[in-house]
Write a structure and sequence with these properties.
The chain contains five helices and no strands. With 97 residues, the protein is mostly helical.
Length: 97
């Protein structure tokens, strides 16, 4: 397809970024949790998910991102404190997806 359509990679990437930005953060998190649960017993499935996360993040693994998220949630930096609502979610606020 790249040979037939000039700049398809750039256009695809911009559309993907726009779609991610338009999606609700909790919905993305719940979707990733659902994928982890679905593939947690399948080595190849988890490897594929991790590889996809590395592509999206520029190299960070799923485990690294979750560890950083945990640390930031427990001890927010100034930028996290500004961009993230300080009201903690309880188990009842999170969708079971």
């Amino acid at each position: 397809m790249e040979k037939e359509v000039c700049n398809i990679g750039t256009v695809f990437t911009e559309i993907l970024k726009d779609e991610i930005n338009a999606n609700d953060q909790q919905r993305i998190y719940n979707g990733v949790k659902r994928l982890i649960k679905k593939y947690s017993q399948e080595k190849r499935g988890m490897e594929t998910l991790d590889e996809f996360i590395r592509v999206l993040s520029g190299g960070a693994s799923l485990e690294e991102l979750l560890q950083i998220a945990k640390e930031e949630a427990q001890n927010p930096t100034i930028s996290t404190g500004i961009t993230v609502d300080d009201n903690c979610y309880t188990g009842e606020n999170i969708s079971p997806d």
